[in-house]
């Protein structure tokens, strides 16, 4: 009876250790994949910033719109088609990003410009007024494939909450959490370039242009992977010890019989 009970305990311990090994190895492999992703992002940022600055215009080959490439655009602002992007924090302070289209010099194309961050007024849930803009403007910045997104929960404010109006240009600027270029182009009727310009210059006291950078610390993920594989090795060593003790008891048991 004691022998049967000991055997069951051994089998249970080995099964639990096998699960631990499988989980920790899986977590280690996941961390290695995250390291590869971050390494690829770092390489993309370096490749984009090495390219010569690009002057944006209509009719360009989309292949030139490389993320993180320095770019400039000249044209006229359309402040009436601006959008506030909420829940964008800067140094722990809540606020908004302002997205405004800039109609390029040819008059037929436009680029969506992320103009900068504005703090939310204390005690107010309303977005600030869009600064008026007149006359031609030239801005510099870096290209992004799309407006950076935030994780978005289902809205509790109704089906129409946080959506673009059917037609832009009338009323106050809408407040959204995320903005899709395709949806925005339909709402505005603008022929948008398939890229976003994150403005860095000229500087403006109304905006903070300290754009968040993606995490590229792949060494951290490699360190985590090494830890997970270390846990797996410890669990494997524990399994060997349990198996060896069970084998030793099984060998001694016949000799203990009268």
* Main pleated-sheet profile: 5 strands, mixed, barrel
Beta-strand content bin? 15-25%
**Beta strands, count:** 8
User: Total helix count?
Assistant: 3
- Portion in helices: 25-40%
Structure overview:
- By secondary structure, the protein is α/β, with parallel strands linked by helices.
- It contains 3 helices and 8 strands.
- The chain has helices at residues 2-50, 181-188, 218-256, and strands at 54-55, 70-77, 83-85, 95-104, 110-119, 136-144, 175-176, 192-201.
- The protein has a 5-stranded mixed barrel.
- α1 packs antiparallel against α3 (218-256).
What labels describe this entry?
258 residues; alpha/beta; 5-stranded mixed β-barrel; 3 helices; elongated; membrane; Surf1/Shy1; transmembrane helix; SURF1-like protein
Set down the secondary structure blueprint.
Blueprint: H1 2-50, E1 54-55, E2 70-77, E3 83-85, E4 95-104, E5 110-119, E6 136-144, E7 175-176, H2 181-188, E8 192-201, H3 218-256
Helix pairs in contact: 1-3
Could you provide a short overview of the structure?
It comes from Bordetella genomosp. 1. With about 260 residues, this protein is α/β, with parallel strands linked by helices.
């Amino acid at each position: 009876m004691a022998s049967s009970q000991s055997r069951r305990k051994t089998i249970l311990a080995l099964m639990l250790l096998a699960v631990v090994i499988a989980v920790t190895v899986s977590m280690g492999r996941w961390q290695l994949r995250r390291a590869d992703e971050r390494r690829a992002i770092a390489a993309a940022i370096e490749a984009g910033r090495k390219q010569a600055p690009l002057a944006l215009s209509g009719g360009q080959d989309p292949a030139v719109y490389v993320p993180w490439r320095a770019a400039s655009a000249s044209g006229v602002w359309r402040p009436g088609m601006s959008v506030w992007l909420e829940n964008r924090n800067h140094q722990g302070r809540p606020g908004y990003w302002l997205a405004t289209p800039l109609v390029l010099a040819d008059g037929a194309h436009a680029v969506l410009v992320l103009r900068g961050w504005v703090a939310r007024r204390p005690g107010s849930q309303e977005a600030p007024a869009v600064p008026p803009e007149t006359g031609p403007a030239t801005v510099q910045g870096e290209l992004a494939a799309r407006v950076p997104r935030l994780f978005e929960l289902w809205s509790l404010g109704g089906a129409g909450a946080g959506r673009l109006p059917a037609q832009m240009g009338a009323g106050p600027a809408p407040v959204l959490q995320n903005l899709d270029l395709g949806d925005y182009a339909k709402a505005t009727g603008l022929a948008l370039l398939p890229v976003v310009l994150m403005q860095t210059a000229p500087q403006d006291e109304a905006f903070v242009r300290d754009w968040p950078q993606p995490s590229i610390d792949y060494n951290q993920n490699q360190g985590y992977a090494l830890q997970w594989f270390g846990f797996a090795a410890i669990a494997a060593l524990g399994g060997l010890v349990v198996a060896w003790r069970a084998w030793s008891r099984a060998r001694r048991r016949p000799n203990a019989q009268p």
